[in-house]
């Protein structure tokens, strides 16, 4: 069961609360990515301490490893992973599409070869729903056809229409409301296709709506244009999720358009590359200029890493290939994202989101 409540609006921005069987999350929220059932570099206690109560995982990856049978025998995905709060799973449509030559789309579903051992598999919309229900996830995404960028109008139209047909099949395959089901809006960068997709999906009784097919290589202004067009048209009383986005500045832009939920690998992936997000922008801890810099990565941050360690030490760990470099960088980046969302929520509550956005961006530079 999923319950969504809007507590306050500020322009199109929404301050809400999402409640499920395994807890609740304040929105707008960011979901740390735990593709294989773990957020790389941090244990669950840390994830929880940083204020996260909803994480993202992935059907494609969990299906290949450890497999549905293992998840079921363990007593479900929460028992297996040890994460007791909310879990959302992406269907894996996006991952399958990034396999390129290893996959083939048919009306029935998607045939693909495992990126691990080349074995053959077939995903249907019905199977993805079954997987999500039997694994016991809180929010499942439907299988969609993720339109790549660039795509011709004809291609985008065809794949949007198929996504709508698959969404309908997903609903028909549903056997329980214990796992909420979100639809995904496709249509590439074509406004009429996006709006038609919204219109058709809005008629169906989904628990939430996502915008997919963005952050797939299109220019930033195209992503913003489509988000600003689509988000306000989605059902007002349902959560809205912008998939795979994004950078702090993208999140601010999308919140302004009325998006409630986000996920992105960058805070965790970049932590592993030595990139830290700070109140003045990104810094690269590898840089030689930090060799004797004994100040914390972000003087404005109160995370465990910034309270206890200097840039010089973090650089030393990173260049020496120490595992703790990943752990400490990840703690900082996830804390930064958590705080950003908290400040966004507070500014909406106080009716000053636009002002907050402007101030944040004034201090924040994309590169150092
Ligand atoms: Zn920090």
Describe the structure.
The protein is α/β, with parallel strands linked by helices and 368 residues long. The chain folds into two domains: 3-264, TIM Barrel (Alpha-Beta Barrel); 273-363, no CATH class. Helix content is 42%, strand content 20%. It is built from 15 helices and 16 strands. It has helices spanning 44-49, 59-64, 68-74, 77-81, 93-97, 125-135, 153-173, 191-202, 220-230, 248-257, 266-272, 304-308, 311-319, 323-349, 353-363, and strands spanning 3-10, 13-20, 23-27, 29-31, 54-58, 86-90, 103-105, 110-113, 120-123, 139-141, 180-185, 208-211, 240-242, 261-263, 275-278, 281-284. The strands form four sheets. An eight-stranded parallel β-sheet has the order 4-14-13-12-11-10-6-5. Strand 7 and strand 8 form a beta hairpin. The longest helix has 27 residues, at 323-349. The radius of gyration is 20 Å and the shape is globular. The model has no long low-confidence stretch (mean pLDDT 96). Bound molecules: zinc ion. Zinc ion binds at residues 297-298, 301, 303, 305-306, 332, 335.
